[in-house]
Amino acid sequence: MTLFFRSEDGKFALRLGAAQVEALLGKCRSAGAFETGGIVAGCYTHNLSVAEVTEVSGPPADSRAGRTWFARGVRGAGEWLGKLWKKKQYYLGEWHFHPSAAPDPSETDIDQMREIASSSGYHCPEPLMLIVGGDSARGYRYRAFVSPRDGLHKELFACDDPFVASSALPSVDTAG
Length: 176
What we know:
- The structure is a single chain.
- The chain has four helices and ten strands, in the order E-E-H-E-E-E-E-H-E-H-E-E-E-H.
- It has helices spanning 18-31, 77-86, 107-118, 162-166, and strands at residues 3-7, 13-16, 36-44, 51-56, 64-65, 70-71, 90-99, 128-135, 139-146, 154-158.
- The strands form two sheets. The protein has an eight-stranded mixed beta barrel.
- By secondary structure, it is of the alpha+beta class.
- It is 23% helix and 34% strand.
């Protein structure tokens, strides 16, 4: 299964291929009844219209989690992103899992994304947030958001992947 999300104004889009979706769900299943999360990394199409997720991290070793909360740690994240940077894949944003719950962002989630957007350390003025909700018995639901540096947090809505229909994903920007 491929996931594709686009903002109402068409300015932002996010795509996860089947392998990335399966990796994400594997991490959710492993977490059981506890929240989990990590980083999504990848690249952009040449016209910058689509963020293509190529890598999904699990929670760093110093992450903390409970049934209704998750705090992503940092141990090893810089090294992981550094290796990806050399392959021209970049930090795109964050993901996390709400077990047996709706994939709705909390105010803490939204605030975190605004902080990332305004931080020079992340080199990501428009970070994405993907939230997975549900469980393997009843199924999973997904919501995606972008937090541009201008502060207007926007939802990206699930839609058909136009590149699957046309079998022509635009080339990705791998230029440094």
